[in-house]
Specification:
The complex is a heterodimer of chains A (259) and B (356). Chain A is 39% helix and 15% strand. Chain A has helices spanning 24-38, 72-82, 94-100, 102-111, 151-154, 160-165, 181-199, 214-217, 221-232, 247-258; strands at residues 44-48, 63-66, 87-93, 116-121, 171-177, 204-210, 239-242. In chain A, strands 2-1-3-4-6-5-7 form a 7-stranded mixed β-sheet, with helices on both faces. Chain A is globular and about 50 Å long. Chain A starts with 23 loop residues before the first helix and ends with a helix. The mean pLDDT of chain A is 95. In chain B, α3 runs parallel beside α4. The model of chain B has no long low-confidence stretch (mean pLDDT 97). Chain B has helices at 8-18, 33-45, 56-68, 79-94, 121-127, 143-160, 170-174, 218-238, 259-274, 292-299, 318-325, 344-355; strands spanning 4-7, 23-26, 49-52, 74-77, 100-105, 136-138, 164-169, 176-179, 210-211, 242-245, 253-256, 279-284, 286-288, 306-311, 331-335. In chain B, β4, α4 and β5 (100-105) form a beta-alpha-beta unit. The radius of gyration of chain B is 21 Å and the shape is globular. Chain B contains 12 helices and 15 strands. Classes of the chains: A alpha/beta (259), B alpha/beta (356).
Chain lengths: 259, 356
Protein backbone atom coordinates (compact mmCIF):
# COMPACT_ATOMS: atom_id res chain seq x y z
CA UNK A 1 0.00 0.00 0.00
CA UNK A 2 1.38 3.37 -0.99
CA UNK A 3 1.50 6.51 1.08
CA UNK A 4 -1.84 8.29 1.29
CA UNK A 5 -0.66 11.41 3.08
CA UNK A 6 2.67 13.11 2.72
CA UNK A 7 4.38 16.46 2.55
CA UNK A 8 3.64 18.14 -0.78
CA UNK A 9 6.62 18.24 -3.14
CA UNK A 10 6.10 21.99 -3.51
CA UNK A 11 6.64 22.47 0.24
CA UNK A 12 10.20 22.57 1.58
CA UNK A 13 11.25 20.39 4.50
CA UNK A 14 11.74 23.31 6.86
CA UNK A 15 10.40 24.40 10.24
CA UNK A 16 8.61 27.72 9.77
CA UNK A 17 9.15 30.85 11.84
CA UNK A 18 5.41 31.36 12.31
CA UNK A 19 3.91 31.66 15.82
CA UNK A 20 1.88 28.84 17.42
CA UNK A 21 -1.70 28.99 16.18
CA UNK A 22 -0.88 31.14 13.15
CA UNK A 23 -2.75 30.09 10.00
CA UNK A 24 0.07 30.92 7.54
CA UNK A 25 1.30 27.33 7.81
CA UNK A 26 -2.10 25.98 6.75
CA UNK A 27 -2.38 28.47 3.88
CA UNK A 28 1.15 27.56 2.69
CA UNK A 29 0.30 23.87 2.72
CA UNK A 30 -2.92 24.39 0.76
CA UNK A 31 -1.06 26.36 -1.92
CA UNK A 32 1.61 23.64 -2.10
CA UNK A 33 -0.99 20.84 -2.35
CA UNK A 34 -2.80 22.65 -5.17
CA UNK A 35 0.46 23.23 -7.06
CA UNK A 36 1.32 19.52 -6.71
CA UNK A 37 -2.14 18.40 -7.78
CA UNK A 38 -2.08 20.64 -10.85
CA UNK A 39 1.47 19.51 -11.66
CA UNK A 40 2.72 23.07 -12.17
CA UNK A 41 5.68 23.32 -9.76
CA UNK A 42 8.21 23.66 -12.59
CA UNK A 43 6.42 26.60 -14.18
CA UNK A 44 5.25 28.41 -11.04
CA UNK A 45 6.78 31.61 -9.66
CA UNK A 46 5.59 32.95 -6.31
CA UNK A 47 5.77 36.61 -5.33
CA UNK A 48 6.43 37.07 -1.60
CA UNK A 49 5.03 40.09 0.26
CA UNK A 50 6.38 42.25 3.04
CA UNK A 51 4.88 41.07 6.29
CA UNK A 52 5.09 37.86 8.31
CA UNK A 53 5.27 35.87 5.07
CA UNK A 54 8.24 37.87 3.70
CA UNK A 55 10.44 34.78 3.92
CA UNK A 56 7.77 32.35 2.70
CA UNK A 57 10.13 31.43 -0.15
CA UNK A 58 12.11 29.44 2.41
CA UNK A 59 9.16 27.06 2.72
CA UNK A 60 8.56 26.31 -0.96
CA UNK A 61 10.57 24.46 -3.58
CA UNK A 62 9.91 26.51 -6.71
CA UNK A 63 11.01 29.90 -8.04
CA UNK A 64 10.21 32.94 -5.94
CA UNK A 65 10.59 36.70 -6.17
CA UNK A 66 10.40 39.13 -3.30
CA UNK A 67 8.39 42.32 -3.68
CA UNK A 68 8.39 45.60 -1.76
CA UNK A 69 5.55 46.35 0.65
CA UNK A 70 2.27 46.31 -1.28
CA UNK A 71 3.88 46.02 -4.70
CA UNK A 72 3.50 42.29 -5.30
CA UNK A 73 0.64 42.73 -7.83
CA UNK A 74 2.84 45.07 -9.90
CA UNK A 75 5.76 42.60 -9.76
CA UNK A 76 3.40 39.78 -10.75
CA UNK A 77 2.02 41.90 -13.60
CA UNK A 78 5.52 42.51 -14.97
CA UNK A 79 6.44 38.84 -14.85
CA UNK A 80 3.16 37.42 -16.12
CA UNK A 81 2.99 39.89 -19.04
CA UNK A 82 6.41 38.92 -20.33
CA UNK A 83 6.03 35.20 -19.49
CA UNK A 84 2.33 34.37 -19.91
CA UNK A 85 3.22 30.65 -19.94
CA UNK A 86 4.25 30.75 -16.27
CA UNK A 87 1.88 30.38 -13.31
CA UNK A 88 2.32 33.41 -11.08
CA UNK A 89 0.80 34.09 -7.69
CA UNK A 90 1.16 36.67 -4.97
CA UNK A 91 0.61 35.95 -1.30
CA UNK A 92 -0.13 39.09 0.69
CA UNK A 93 -1.32 40.16 4.10
CA UNK A 94 -3.87 42.85 4.86
CA UNK A 95 -1.44 45.66 5.66
CA UNK A 96 0.47 44.89 2.48
CA UNK A 97 -2.51 44.46 0.15
CA UNK A 98 -5.29 46.59 1.65
CA UNK A 99 -3.24 49.56 2.86
CA UNK A 100 0.00 50.45 1.08
CA UNK A 101 -0.74 48.18 -1.89
CA UNK A 102 -4.37 49.13 -2.48
CA UNK A 103 -3.59 50.90 -5.75
CA UNK A 104 -1.63 47.97 -7.14
CA UNK A 105 -4.25 45.32 -6.30
CA UNK A 106 -7.20 47.33 -7.64
CA UNK A 107 -5.51 48.05 -10.96
CA UNK A 108 -4.18 44.52 -11.39
CA UNK A 109 -7.70 43.19 -10.76
CA UNK A 110 -9.24 45.75 -13.07
CA UNK A 111 -6.82 44.97 -15.90
CA UNK A 112 -7.77 41.33 -15.43
CA UNK A 113 -4.16 40.27 -14.95
CA UNK A 114 -3.96 36.49 -15.32
CA UNK A 115 -2.34 35.74 -11.98
CA UNK A 116 -3.63 34.51 -8.63
CA UNK A 117 -3.68 36.37 -5.32
CA UNK A 118 -3.83 34.67 -1.93
CA UNK A 119 -4.90 37.35 0.54
CA UNK A 120 -4.41 36.64 4.25
CA UNK A 121 -6.79 38.76 6.33
CA UNK A 122 -6.03 38.56 10.05
CA UNK A 123 -7.24 42.07 10.91
CA UNK A 124 -3.83 43.29 12.06
CA UNK A 125 -0.25 44.07 10.99
CA UNK A 126 1.68 40.99 12.06
CA UNK A 127 5.40 41.39 11.47
CA UNK A 128 5.70 44.99 12.65
CA UNK A 129 4.05 44.05 15.95
CA UNK A 130 0.26 44.20 15.89
CA UNK A 131 -0.60 47.66 14.58
CA UNK A 132 -4.03 48.58 13.25
CA UNK A 133 -4.73 47.48 9.66
CA UNK A 134 -7.44 48.65 7.23
CA UNK A 135 -9.15 45.34 8.08
CA UNK A 136 -9.03 45.76 11.89
CA UNK A 137 -12.50 45.28 13.42
CA UNK A 138 -14.37 48.14 15.16
CA UNK A 139 -13.27 48.39 18.81
CA UNK A 140 -10.44 45.87 18.20
CA UNK A 141 -7.41 46.80 20.30
CA UNK A 142 -4.08 46.97 18.51
CA UNK A 143 -0.76 48.61 19.36
CA UNK A 144 -1.83 51.71 17.42
CA UNK A 145 -5.48 51.61 18.50
CA UNK A 146 -4.92 50.89 22.21
CA UNK A 147 -8.47 51.93 23.12
CA UNK A 148 -9.99 49.96 20.26
CA UNK A 149 -10.50 50.99 16.61
CA UNK A 150 -12.79 54.01 16.59
CA UNK A 151 -14.85 54.03 13.42
CA UNK A 152 -15.41 57.79 13.57
CA UNK A 153 -11.64 58.30 13.49
CA UNK A 154 -10.43 55.56 11.20
CA UNK A 155 -13.46 54.24 9.31
CA UNK A 156 -14.86 50.76 8.94
CA UNK A 157 -12.76 47.70 8.03
CA UNK A 158 -12.34 47.36 4.27
CA UNK A 159 -14.07 44.39 2.66
CA UNK A 160 -11.51 43.84 -0.07
CA UNK A 161 -13.24 40.91 -1.78
CA UNK A 162 -16.52 42.81 -2.12
CA UNK A 163 -14.65 45.89 -3.32
CA UNK A 164 -12.75 44.00 -6.03
CA UNK A 165 -15.93 42.12 -7.01
CA UNK A 166 -17.54 45.49 -7.74
CA UNK A 167 -15.12 46.05 -10.61
CA UNK A 168 -16.68 45.35 -14.00
CA UNK A 169 -13.80 43.22 -15.32
CA UNK A 170 -14.46 39.45 -15.17
CA UNK A 171 -12.70 37.76 -12.24
CA UNK A 172 -12.88 34.99 -9.69
CA UNK A 173 -13.18 36.49 -6.21
CA UNK A 174 -13.80 34.33 -3.15
CA UNK A 175 -13.44 34.56 0.61
CA UNK A 176 -12.85 31.46 2.74
CA UNK A 177 -11.29 30.85 6.13
CA UNK A 178 -8.84 28.49 7.81
CA UNK A 179 -10.53 28.23 11.22
CA UNK A 180 -11.41 24.51 11.15
CA UNK A 181 -11.04 21.47 8.85
CA UNK A 182 -14.43 21.97 7.17
CA UNK A 183 -13.50 25.53 6.21
CA UNK A 184 -9.99 24.47 5.25
CA UNK A 185 -11.36 22.01 2.67
CA UNK A 186 -13.46 24.79 1.16
CA UNK A 187 -10.48 27.12 1.17
CA UNK A 188 -8.43 24.56 -0.73
CA UNK A 189 -11.16 24.18 -3.33
CA UNK A 190 -11.22 27.96 -3.80
CA UNK A 191 -7.42 28.10 -4.16
CA UNK A 192 -7.48 25.27 -6.70
CA UNK A 193 -10.25 26.99 -8.64
CA UNK A 194 -8.26 30.24 -8.63
CA UNK A 195 -5.11 28.57 -10.00
CA UNK A 196 -7.19 26.68 -12.56
CA UNK A 197 -8.70 29.90 -13.90
CA UNK A 198 -5.17 31.23 -14.28
CA UNK A 199 -3.87 28.11 -16.03
CA UNK A 200 -6.80 28.29 -18.44
CA UNK A 201 -5.94 31.99 -19.02
CA UNK A 202 -9.48 32.96 -18.03
CA UNK A 203 -9.23 35.82 -15.56
CA UNK A 204 -7.72 37.44 -12.49
CA UNK A 205 -8.29 35.19 -9.48
CA UNK A 206 -8.34 36.19 -5.82
CA UNK A 207 -8.88 34.17 -2.65
CA UNK A 208 -9.18 35.98 0.67
CA UNK A 209 -8.54 33.79 3.71
CA UNK A 210 -9.87 34.95 7.08
CA UNK A 211 -6.99 34.03 9.38
CA UNK A 212 -5.85 34.31 12.97
CA UNK A 213 -2.98 36.08 14.71
CA UNK A 214 -3.02 34.84 18.32
CA UNK A 215 0.24 36.63 19.18
CA UNK A 216 -0.88 40.10 18.14
CA UNK A 217 -4.45 39.55 19.28
CA UNK A 218 -3.12 38.64 22.74
CA UNK A 219 -4.96 35.31 22.73
CA UNK A 220 -4.31 31.60 22.85
CA UNK A 221 -4.73 29.83 19.49
CA UNK A 222 -8.14 28.46 20.56
CA UNK A 223 -9.32 31.86 21.81
CA UNK A 224 -8.20 33.35 18.51
CA UNK A 225 -10.28 30.88 16.49
CA UNK A 226 -13.30 31.61 18.68
CA UNK A 227 -12.79 35.39 18.31
CA UNK A 228 -12.46 35.14 14.53
CA UNK A 229 -15.64 33.08 14.30
CA UNK A 230 -17.58 35.46 16.52
CA UNK A 231 -16.22 38.81 15.38
CA UNK A 232 -14.79 38.43 11.89
CA UNK A 233 -16.99 35.89 10.08
CA UNK A 234 -20.26 37.83 10.58
CA UNK A 235 -18.58 40.84 8.94
CA UNK A 236 -16.28 39.08 6.46
CA UNK A 237 -18.89 36.69 5.09
CA UNK A 238 -17.63 33.63 3.27
CA UNK A 239 -18.46 32.73 -0.30
CA UNK A 240 -17.78 33.34 -3.94
CA UNK A 241 -18.37 36.97 -4.83
CA UNK A 242 -17.70 36.79 -8.50
CA UNK A 243 -16.99 34.24 -11.21
CA UNK A 244 -16.17 34.88 -14.83
CA UNK A 245 -18.98 32.55 -15.97
CA UNK A 246 -21.90 34.21 -14.34
CA UNK A 247 -21.48 37.90 -13.73
CA UNK A 248 -25.07 38.59 -12.71
CA UNK A 249 -25.56 35.72 -10.30
CA UNK A 250 -22.15 36.41 -8.79
CA UNK A 251 -23.25 39.96 -8.09
CA UNK A 252 -26.49 38.72 -6.48
CA UNK A 253 -24.56 36.29 -4.29
CA UNK A 254 -22.33 39.11 -3.22
CA UNK A 255 -25.17 41.49 -2.32
CA UNK A 256 -27.16 38.89 -0.33
CA UNK A 257 -24.06 37.87 1.57
CA UNK A 258 -23.37 41.45 2.47
CA UNK A 259 -26.97 42.21 3.44
CA UNK B 1 18.51 51.11 -43.58
CA UNK B 2 19.68 54.69 -44.09
CA UNK B 3 19.02 57.75 -41.99
CA UNK B 4 15.50 58.75 -41.01
CA UNK B 5 14.31 61.97 -39.41
CA UNK B 6 12.88 61.15 -35.99
CA UNK B 7 11.87 62.85 -32.77
CA UNK B 8 14.18 61.87 -29.90
CA UNK B 9 11.46 60.20 -27.83
CA UNK B 10 10.32 58.04 -30.75
CA UNK B 11 13.89 57.20 -31.73
CA UNK B 12 14.58 56.01 -28.16
CA UNK B 13 11.58 53.68 -28.34
CA UNK B 14 12.63 52.36 -31.75
CA UNK B 15 16.22 51.90 -30.54
CA UNK B 16 15.02 49.59 -27.77
CA UNK B 17 13.14 47.44 -30.29
CA UNK B 18 16.18 47.32 -32.58
CA UNK B 19 18.27 46.29 -29.58
CA UNK B 20 15.98 43.31 -29.03
CA UNK B 21 13.95 44.62 -26.11
CA UNK B 22 10.25 44.07 -26.72
CA UNK B 23 8.92 44.64 -23.19
CA UNK B 24 7.93 48.14 -22.07
CA UNK B 25 5.94 49.38 -19.07
CA UNK B 26 5.38 53.11 -18.49
CA UNK B 27 3.23 55.90 -17.13
CA UNK B 28 2.62 59.10 -19.15
CA UNK B 29 4.50 62.26 -18.19
CA UNK B 30 5.60 65.31 -20.18
CA UNK B 31 8.06 65.68 -21.92
CA UNK B 32 8.49 61.99 -22.80
CA UNK B 33 4.96 60.66 -23.36
CA UNK B 34 5.72 60.19 -27.06
CA UNK B 35 7.81 57.13 -26.18
CA UNK B 36 4.72 55.37 -24.78
CA UNK B 37 2.53 56.61 -27.63
CA UNK B 38 5.01 55.34 -30.19
CA UNK B 39 5.52 51.98 -28.52
CA UNK B 40 1.79 51.40 -27.98
CA UNK B 41 1.64 51.12 -31.78
CA UNK B 42 5.03 49.57 -32.52
CA UNK B 43 5.35 46.86 -29.88
CA UNK B 44 2.16 44.98 -30.84
CA UNK B 45 3.50 44.92 -34.42
CA UNK B 46 6.63 43.22 -33.11
CA UNK B 47 4.76 40.78 -30.85
CA UNK B 48 6.07 42.63 -27.80
CA UNK B 49 4.53 43.72 -24.51
CA UNK B 50 3.25 47.27 -24.01
CA UNK B 51 1.50 48.14 -20.76
CA UNK B 52 0.55 51.50 -19.32
CA UNK B 53 0.82 51.09 -15.55
CA UNK B 54 -1.32 52.85 -12.94
CA UNK B 55 1.60 54.85 -11.51
CA UNK B 56 5.36 55.19 -11.80
CA UNK B 57 5.68 53.30 -8.52
CA UNK B 58 3.81 50.33 -9.98
CA UNK B 59 5.77 50.57 -13.25
CA UNK B 60 9.09 50.30 -11.42
CA UNK B 61 7.91 47.01 -9.89
CA UNK B 62 6.57 45.73 -13.21
CA UNK B 63 10.13 46.28 -14.45
CA UNK B 64 11.42 44.30 -11.45
CA UNK B 65 9.02 41.41 -12.09
CA UNK B 66 9.87 41.17 -15.78
CA UNK B 67 13.62 41.64 -15.28
CA UNK B 68 13.75 39.06 -12.48
CA UNK B 69 11.96 36.69 -14.84
CA UNK B 70 14.95 37.00 -17.16
CA UNK B 71 13.43 39.13 -19.93
CA UNK B 72 14.79 42.37 -21.39
CA UNK B 73 12.63 45.26 -20.21
CA UNK B 74 12.71 49.05 -20.05
CA UNK B 75 10.74 52.12 -19.10
CA UNK B 76 10.87 55.83 -19.77
CA UNK B 77 9.79 58.72 -17.58
CA UNK B 78 10.63 62.26 -16.58
CA UNK B 79 11.91 63.77 -13.35
CA UNK B 80 8.90 63.58 -10.95
CA UNK B 81 8.17 60.12 -12.32
CA UNK B 82 11.73 58.99 -11.70
CA UNK B 83 11.39 60.16 -8.08
CA UNK B 84 8.45 57.77 -7.74
CA UNK B 85 10.34 54.97 -9.50
CA UNK B 86 13.33 55.43 -7.21
CA UNK B 87 11.82 53.03 -4.68
CA UNK B 88 11.67 50.26 -7.26
CA UNK B 89 15.09 51.18 -8.68
CA UNK B 90 16.64 50.60 -5.25
CA UNK B 91 15.02 47.14 -5.13
CA UNK B 92 16.10 46.31 -8.70
CA UNK B 93 19.73 47.16 -7.98
CA UNK B 94 19.56 45.14 -4.76
CA UNK B 95 17.96 42.22 -6.61
CA UNK B 96 20.73 42.52 -9.24
CA UNK B 97 18.38 42.59 -12.20
CA UNK B 98 19.24 44.15 -15.57
CA UNK B 99 16.85 46.86 -16.80
CA UNK B 100 17.01 50.18 -18.64
CA UNK B 101 15.47 53.40 -17.32
CA UNK B 102 15.26 56.54 -19.45
CA UNK B 103 14.84 59.93 -17.76
CA UNK B 104 13.97 62.80 -20.12
CA UNK B 105 14.57 65.50 -17.53
CA UNK B 106 12.29 68.46 -16.88
CA UNK B 107 12.73 71.30 -14.41
CA UNK B 108 12.21 70.79 -10.69
CA UNK B 109 11.92 70.61 -7.74
CA UNK B 110 8.31 69.58 -7.19
CA UNK B 111 6.23 69.87 -10.33
CA UNK B 112 8.82 72.38 -11.55
CA UNK B 113 8.15 72.81 -15.24
CA UNK B 114 7.99 70.81 -18.44
CA UNK B 115 10.91 72.44 -20.23
CA UNK B 116 14.41 70.92 -20.54
CA UNK B 117 16.59 70.62 -17.45
CA UNK B 118 19.57 68.73 -16.08
CA UNK B 119 18.45 68.99 -12.46
CA UNK B 120 18.36 65.24 -11.79
CA UNK B 121 22.13 64.82 -11.88
CA UNK B 122 22.44 64.10 -8.16
CA UNK B 123 19.39 61.84 -8.13
CA UNK B 124 20.75 59.79 -11.03
CA UNK B 125 24.42 59.68 -10.12
CA UNK B 126 24.35 59.62 -6.32
CA UNK B 127 21.28 57.40 -5.94
CA UNK B 128 17.70 58.66 -5.75
CA UNK B 129 16.45 55.79 -3.63
CA UNK B 130 17.65 54.29 -0.36
CA UNK B 131 20.75 52.24 0.29
CA UNK B 132 24.20 51.84 -1.26
CA UNK B 133 23.63 51.53 -4.96
CA UNK B 134 24.68 53.08 -8.25
CA UNK B 135 23.21 53.22 -11.70
CA UNK B 136 25.34 53.22 -14.83
CA UNK B 137 24.27 56.66 -16.10
CA UNK B 138 24.74 57.70 -19.74
CA UNK B 139 24.03 61.20 -21.03
CA UNK B 140 23.38 61.62 -24.79
CA UNK B 141 24.03 64.94 -26.54
CA UNK B 142 22.10 64.15 -29.72
CA UNK B 143 19.26 61.96 -30.89
CA UNK B 144 21.78 59.73 -32.66
CA UNK B 145 23.79 59.34 -29.48
CA UNK B 146 20.59 58.60 -27.53
CA UNK B 147 19.85 55.81 -30.02
CA UNK B 148 23.34 54.35 -29.73
CA UNK B 149 23.39 54.54 -25.93
CA UNK B 150 19.94 52.98 -25.80
CA UNK B 151 20.94 50.13 -28.09
CA UNK B 152 24.06 49.42 -26.04
CA UNK B 153 22.35 49.81 -22.67
CA UNK B 154 20.74 46.36 -22.54
CA UNK B 155 24.03 44.50 -22.91
CA UNK B 156 25.62 46.72 -20.25
CA UNK B 157 22.69 46.15 -17.89
CA UNK B 158 23.11 42.40 -18.41
CA UNK B 159 26.89 42.53 -18.02
CA UNK B 160 26.51 44.08 -14.57
CA UNK B 161 23.04 42.78 -13.67
CA UNK B 162 22.29 46.37 -12.73
CA UNK B 163 19.98 49.04 -14.14
CA UNK B 164 21.37 51.45 -16.72
CA UNK B 165 19.92 54.95 -16.89
CA UNK B 166 19.84 57.05 -20.03
CA UNK B 167 19.74 60.62 -18.75
CA UNK B 168 18.56 63.02 -21.43
CA UNK B 169 17.31 66.55 -21.02
CA UNK B 170 13.91 67.48 -22.47
CA UNK B 171 15.48 68.69 -25.74
CA UNK B 172 16.89 65.24 -26.49
CA UNK B 173 13.37 63.86 -26.26
CA UNK B 174 11.61 66.63 -28.13
CA UNK B 175 13.90 67.56 -31.02
CA UNK B 176 13.99 65.87 -34.41
CA UNK B 177 17.28 64.84 -35.93
CA UNK B 178 18.37 62.39 -38.62
CA UNK B 179 19.19 59.03 -37.07
CA UNK B 180 20.24 55.54 -38.03
CA UNK B 181 20.04 52.35 -36.00
CA UNK B 182 23.35 50.49 -36.32
CA UNK B 183 22.63 46.73 -36.39
CA UNK B 184 26.09 46.13 -34.94
CA UNK B 185 24.94 47.55 -31.62
CA UNK B 186 22.35 44.83 -31.17
CA UNK B 187 23.66 42.29 -28.64
CA UNK B 188 22.10 38.89 -28.08
CA UNK B 189 20.61 38.53 -24.57
CA UNK B 190 22.83 36.71 -22.10
CA UNK B 191 21.73 33.38 -20.59
CA UNK B 192 20.05 34.14 -17.26
CA UNK B 193 19.23 30.60 -16.13
CA UNK B 194 21.71 30.79 -13.24
CA UNK B 195 19.61 33.35 -11.36
CA UNK B 196 16.35 34.32 -13.11
CA UNK B 197 12.96 33.24 -11.80
CA UNK B 198 11.90 31.98 -15.20
CA UNK B 199 10.41 28.70 -13.94
CA UNK B 200 12.40 25.53 -13.24
CA UNK B 201 10.97 23.74 -16.29
CA UNK B 202 12.10 26.61 -18.55
CA UNK B 203 15.70 25.86 -17.65
CA UNK B 204 15.27 22.07 -17.15
CA UNK B 205 16.43 22.31 -13.57
CA UNK B 206 15.41 20.95 -10.21
CA UNK B 207 17.09 23.88 -8.48
CA UNK B 208 14.78 26.76 -7.81
CA UNK B 209 15.91 30.38 -8.23
CA UNK B 210 15.16 33.14 -5.76
CA UNK B 211 15.32 36.88 -6.44
CA UNK B 212 15.33 38.78 -3.17
CA UNK B 213 16.68 41.87 -1.43
CA UNK B 214 16.20 40.99 2.26
CA UNK B 215 19.33 40.05 4.22
CA UNK B 216 18.56 40.10 7.94
CA UNK B 217 21.93 38.63 8.87
CA UNK B 218 24.32 41.62 9.16
CA UNK B 219 27.28 39.68 7.76
CA UNK B 220 25.24 38.55 4.76
CA UNK B 221 24.00 42.08 4.09
CA UNK B 222 27.54 43.44 4.34
CA UNK B 223 28.79 40.79 1.89
CA UNK B 224 25.90 41.59 -0.43
CA UNK B 225 26.83 45.29 -0.38
CA UNK B 226 30.47 44.43 -1.01
CA UNK B 227 29.42 42.42 -4.09
CA UNK B 228 27.46 45.43 -5.35
CA UNK B 229 30.40 47.74 -4.61
CA UNK B 230 32.72 45.50 -6.61
CA UNK B 231 30.43 45.91 -9.63
CA UNK B 232 30.43 49.71 -9.31
CA UNK B 233 34.24 49.66 -9.09
CA UNK B 234 34.37 47.50 -12.21
CA UNK B 235 32.17 50.07 -13.99
CA UNK B 236 34.67 52.76 -12.97
CA UNK B 237 37.49 50.72 -14.51
CA UNK B 238 35.73 49.63 -17.70
CA UNK B 239 32.85 51.92 -18.65
CA UNK B 240 34.05 55.54 -18.43
CA UNK B 241 33.18 57.37 -21.64
CA UNK B 242 33.73 60.99 -22.57
CA UNK B 243 34.43 63.22 -25.53
CA UNK B 244 37.30 65.70 -25.48
CA UNK B 245 36.72 68.83 -27.59
CA UNK B 246 39.44 71.27 -28.73
CA UNK B 247 41.85 69.93 -26.11
CA UNK B 248 44.84 69.79 -28.47
CA UNK B 249 45.00 73.59 -28.42
CA UNK B 250 46.58 75.73 -25.71
CA UNK B 251 43.41 76.69 -23.85
CA UNK B 252 43.13 78.91 -20.80
CA UNK B 253 39.69 77.70 -19.75
CA UNK B 254 38.35 74.15 -19.63
CA UNK B 255 34.60 73.62 -19.84
CA UNK B 256 32.92 70.52 -18.42
CA UNK B 257 29.41 70.07 -19.76
CA UNK B 258 27.15 67.24 -20.97
CA UNK B 259 23.98 66.63 -22.95
CA UNK B 260 22.34 69.41 -24.93
CA UNK B 261 24.27 71.98 -22.88
CA UNK B 262 27.58 70.65 -24.22
CA UNK B 263 26.42 71.30 -27.80
CA UNK B 264 25.79 74.96 -26.95
CA UNK B 265 29.24 75.05 -25.33
CA UNK B 266 30.91 73.61 -28.46
CA UNK B 267 29.27 76.39 -30.53
CA UNK B 268 30.63 78.93 -28.02
CA UNK B 269 34.08 77.33 -28.20
CA UNK B 270 34.05 77.55 -32.04
CA UNK B 271 33.10 81.27 -31.89
CA UNK B 272 35.82 81.99 -29.35
CA UNK B 273 38.33 80.20 -31.57
CA UNK B 274 37.34 82.52 -34.43
CA UNK B 275 38.12 85.42 -32.08
CA UNK B 276 41.52 83.91 -31.29
CA UNK B 277 40.69 82.39 -27.90
CA UNK B 278 41.06 78.69 -27.23
CA UNK B 279 38.77 76.85 -24.82
CA UNK B 280 38.82 73.11 -24.22
CA UNK B 281 35.94 70.89 -23.18
CA UNK B 282 35.46 67.49 -21.60
CA UNK B 283 31.97 66.16 -22.26
CA UNK B 284 31.12 63.25 -19.94
CA UNK B 285 29.10 60.61 -21.82
CA UNK B 286 28.89 58.53 -18.67
CA UNK B 287 27.99 60.50 -15.52
CA UNK B 288 28.55 57.42 -13.41
CA UNK B 289 31.25 56.32 -13.80
CA UNK B 290 32.52 59.91 -14.05
CA UNK B 291 35.58 60.74 -16.22
CA UNK B 292 37.66 61.96 -13.28
CA UNK B 293 41.04 61.24 -14.81
CA UNK B 294 40.24 62.89 -18.16
CA UNK B 295 39.10 66.04 -16.38
CA UNK B 296 42.13 66.04 -14.07
CA UNK B 297 44.49 65.66 -17.03
CA UNK B 298 42.74 68.33 -19.08
CA UNK B 299 42.66 70.79 -16.17
CA UNK B 300 46.33 70.08 -15.47
CA UNK B 301 47.43 71.02 -18.97
CA UNK B 302 49.92 73.87 -18.97
CA UNK B 303 48.26 77.25 -19.46
CA UNK B 304 44.82 76.22 -18.22
CA UNK B 305 43.77 78.66 -15.49
CA UNK B 306 40.17 77.85 -14.69
CA UNK B 307 37.50 75.20 -15.06
CA UNK B 308 33.90 76.13 -15.90
CA UNK B 309 31.07 73.73 -15.28
CA UNK B 310 28.05 74.56 -17.47
CA UNK B 311 24.75 72.85 -16.64
CA UNK B 312 21.00 73.38 -16.90
CA UNK B 313 20.72 73.19 -13.11
CA UNK B 314 22.15 74.94 -10.08
CA UNK B 315 25.58 73.34 -10.22
CA UNK B 316 24.89 69.77 -9.22
CA UNK B 317 27.88 68.44 -11.19
CA UNK B 318 30.30 70.98 -9.69
CA UNK B 319 31.34 68.81 -6.76
CA UNK B 320 32.21 65.87 -9.05
CA UNK B 321 34.26 68.24 -11.22
CA UNK B 322 35.97 69.68 -8.13
CA UNK B 323 36.74 66.16 -6.97
CA UNK B 324 38.23 65.40 -10.40
CA UNK B 325 40.28 68.60 -10.54
CA UNK B 326 41.51 67.82 -7.00
CA UNK B 327 42.34 71.41 -6.09
CA UNK B 328 44.55 72.09 -9.13
CA UNK B 329 42.37 74.99 -10.26
CA UNK B 330 39.25 76.86 -9.17
CA UNK B 331 35.99 75.38 -10.51
CA UNK B 332 33.34 77.88 -11.58
CA UNK B 333 29.74 77.30 -12.51
CA UNK B 334 27.32 78.77 -14.97
CA UNK B 335 23.82 77.60 -15.73
CA UNK B 336 20.09 78.13 -15.74
CA UNK B 337 17.37 75.85 -14.59
CA UNK B 338 14.04 77.42 -15.44
CA UNK B 339 13.77 75.60 -18.73
CA UNK B 340 15.68 78.05 -20.91
CA UNK B 341 18.84 76.67 -22.44
CA UNK B 342 21.74 79.14 -22.04
CA UNK B 343 22.81 80.62 -25.39
CA UNK B 344 26.33 80.44 -26.87
CA UNK B 345 26.62 84.19 -26.23
CA UNK B 346 25.89 83.73 -22.53
CA UNK B 347 28.47 80.95 -22.31
CA UNK B 348 31.03 83.13 -24.14
CA UNK B 349 30.41 85.95 -21.65
CA UNK B 350 31.06 83.61 -18.73
CA UNK B 351 34.21 82.23 -20.35
CA UNK B 352 35.52 85.75 -21.02
CA UNK B 353 35.21 86.59 -17.30
CA UNK B 354 37.66 83.75 -16.66
CA UNK B 355 40.02 84.73 -19.50
CA UNK B 356 40.99 88.06 -17.98
Amino acid sequence: MGKIFQKPEALADRITHYCPGCTHGVAHRLVAEVIDELGIRGKTVGIAPVGCAVMMYDYFTFDFQEAAHGRAPAVATGLKRVRPDLTVFTYQGDGDLASIGMGEIVHAANRGEKFTVIFINNAVYGMTGGQMAPTTMPDQRTTTSPFGRKVLDTGMPIKVSEMLAALQTPAYIARQTLLNPKYINKAKKAIKKAFTYQIENTCFSFVELVSTCPTNWGMTPLEAIKWAEEKMLPYYSLGVFKTPEDEESAKKTSSTKNG
Amino acid sequence: MGKVLMKGNEAIGEAAIRAGCLNYFAYPITPQSEVAEYLSRRLPEEGGVFLQGESEVAVSYMILGAAAGGERVFTTSSSPGISLMSEGISYITAAQCPAVFVNIMRGGPGLGGILPSQADYMQSVKGGGHGDYKLLVMAPASVQEAVEMMMGAFALAEKYRNPVMILGDGLIGQMMEPVEFPDALKAEPTNKDAWATNGMSTRNSNQRNLVKTLYLNPEELNSHNLRLKAKYEQMQREEVRYEAYNVDEDYRVLIVSYGTMSRVCSTAIDSLKDQGHEVGMIRPQTLFPFPNTAIYDAAGKQGCRAVLCVEMCMGQMVEDVERSVAGLLPVHWYGKCGGEVPTPEEVIEEVQKLMD
